[in-house]
Design goal:
The structure is a homodimer of 407-residue chains. Chain A is of the alpha/beta class and 407 residues long. Helix content of chain A is 33%, strand content 18%. The relative contact order of chain A is 0.18.
Chain lengths: 407, 407
């Protein structure tokens, strides 16, 4: 610890994932190795808490518990959904940069998704405008895997592993009766079907369930869907269908909206519920077959016991690389993954311009989806399989996982 | 293998659990050690498949894969929901006992819940009536833990561990934002609240979530519920409420019925859906607070990666004891667990009369629930904690669990 050094601050933002704390762990560990860095501040509830002076000295607060961070789901520091104004002359920017000064902070690392990269981009532009030497770095996290300019995002691998395992479990459960049944599994993904596509990994053999997989990338037609379910019922007793929460018809209308209302969150995203439930009723009505729907819900982003070791390791690496990028003088950048397949699967980090990342959305390539839009092809399987490899499980005590949390 | 011996048949019935295959494993392993037993037949889809001659030679079919059974969820042999007629003069009984003769079967072991014990009871009575020497033995399984005359039932411990872990995960997830929110977790349990009560084990410290737990054992009042949620919102930012699917009002009407229709299954049980979703809407409407509901659904009975080792071991023991009971000449009996706490937690097996078990339902004792019906007390925690201890996880390959299934 140097007397002449400076401090950094790290925050978490947006929806939690299984490994967003692994990235925090990576930031802390790398910062501890960097002699110039004195204190590692943590923003409580992201940039929103920071402007209210809610921050902590992470090392002081965590002590020996820091190792637990690696396998603790959700966001240890707390999160927020706070969008900075487009107008860089808004007083909030001045407030934030005064706080950086107040706490002698030279680097702000924001672990988050699309909207957080928007924050990184705006703050780095503002810094440039006022000639501030504070660097702003983004570390990606999203279960949705929709960030562009990176091979994939930390958080997706564990979500994919959870989905593949759970769909495999549900298939086992559904197969106990020999009477016909349909199970509709609704998975997360508003506009990008990455998580739902991962359900294809659940198959134990060719022709195994899930036999139908629907992503938002292809327009959904209710009548064709019913025809497809009917066809599959001739082949397998118990049909498992996986659908993204965000499937839409050819006019862009969400299927979940067929059944009810939908509100919007503070970012203007539509709040979706229940296309699975809706389709369950359609199947019952049109095919008179036993049908149930299962919504995996928040478990997709917080099931630490099913975290992918690859994902945890990469999340740590991305966090650590964030500190390195700052020390190299970079700013306004997001850490990105580059895949090298010459000798098996290997990931290295690079930095990409945050302004090119935010407000973009990477969807599943059309060529990885079958022509009729009901199946996921080999290209995706080859892409996703390495991401779910290995186990990185929380310590268990008294039969339950031990996590690290703010007291 | 003795030339002069006989065969046995084992079946699985009712809803699957995480450890019903562990009991099957126990039956097979014990039968293999019993020289008088030649073949171990497995009924495919329970007694219903058996009358259609759908059975398998388990050892032949499984080969080396038998070890995988221990950690395979759902029912390897397939299940059924088939209720034998009350009238023992119905021809079906004759059909079944002719099949026993045809396959040289001297013992039928049925792994199942309440309704399966009804089958065991009826078949043993019929055997007595016709002076048959075929013995009928029941091995308990139910995630619901509602079987009487046994300390607990195989299947409950793993369901409880899954629920406690998952509620802990959901609490972590809910706590990332500092704005007020309510999360309603709907758990399985039509009439008995055992599974929902297990959510109390999720608490990491006193006062931690879930702060409200509602079981079917206590009449549910919507207005009082809203008052309670309101009070809790003053204490914790994010309120997690756990409710049994089967909560009912003082007149015995299911809360889920408030919002819609309910069908009945072949045993005359009401098919329930959605009290969590219903209460979500009530909370939003009356308290104008962010609220979501999460239904853990079938995951409660098939998440092998969160199986309790205690549960798996006991399920194996119960299966093995079934074979021993038969060899001791018993019939019409269910294997039951007796708890011995003189030197820590220890379970031994005994047999109880199936006719005293079937069509009974063990509910959570009133003294284990707080007076106001919103919390679970120490008595339950002391009872349930030993049941979730230890990990018994499936082998993982390519990042996913390896299971044993009928080809």
């Amino acid at each position: 610890m140097s007397e002449t050094g400076f401090n950094i601050v790290v925050g978490q933002s947006g929806g939690p994932t299984t490994v967003i704390n692994s990235s925090l762990y990576g930031v802390v560990k790398e910062a501890q190795k960097t002699p110039e860095i004195k204190k590692i501040y943590g923003m409580i509830n992201g940039i929103q808490g920071f402007v209210e002076d809610r921050l902590m000295d992470i090392e002081e607060e965590l002590g020996d518990e820091i190792e637990l961070l690696k396998n603790t789901p959700a966001a240890y520091l707390g999160s927020c959904r706070y969008k900075l104004p487009e107008n860089l002359e808004d007083e909030i920017y001045d407030v934030i940069f005064n706080k950086f000064k107040k706490y002698d902070i030279k680097c702000f690392i924001y672990i988050g998704g699309n909207d957080s990269m928007d924050t990184v981009s705006k703050l780095s532009k503002y810094a440039e405008g006022i000639n501030s030497d504070v660097k702003i770095i983004g570390v990606p996290k999203t279960i949705d895997n929709d960030l562009v300019l990176t091979d994939h995002s930390p958080g997706f691998g564990s979500a994919a592993k959870y989905v593949a395992t759970t769909v495999r479990d549900i298939v086992m459960d559904a197969n106990v009766y020999d009477t016909h049944s349909v199970t509709i599994v609704e998975l997360m993904g508003r506009h990008a079907g990455w998580i739902t596509a991962a359900s294809v990994l659940a198959r134990k053999y060719e022709g195994d369930n899930p036999v139908l997989i629907y992503l938002p990338e292809v327009a959904f037609d209710e009548n064709t869907f019913i025809e497809n379910v009917k066809k599959q019922l001739d082949k397998v007793s118990n049909v498992i269908v996986c659908v993204s929460e965000g499937i839409k018809d050819k006019d862009g209308r969400f299927i979940c909206e067929y059944s009810g209302d939908a509100g919007t969150d503070t970012f203007g995203h539509k709040m979706l519920t229940g296309c699975g439930k809706y389709l369950e009723n359609v199947v019952k009505d049109k095919l008179s077959v036993k049908c149930r729907s299962v919504e995996l819900n928040v478990n997709q982003r917080c099931k630490a016991v099913l975290a992918s070791k690859t994902d945890v390791d990469e999340a740590i690496m991305a966090g650590a690389y964030g500190v390195k990028a700052f020390m190299n003088g970079e700013t306004g950048k997001m850490i990105a993954f580059v895949r090298n397949e010459s000798e098996g699967y290997r990931i290295t980090c690079e930095t990409v311009d945050c302004s090119l990342v935010c407000n973009q959305e990477k969807v599943v390539p059309r060529e990885w989806i079958s022509d009729d839009g009901t199946d996921i092809l080999e290209g995706f399987i080859k892409y996703a399989k390495p991401l779910i490899q290995g186990e990185s499980r929380p310590e268990m005590k008294d039969g339950l996982p031990v996590y690290c949390y703010r007291k």
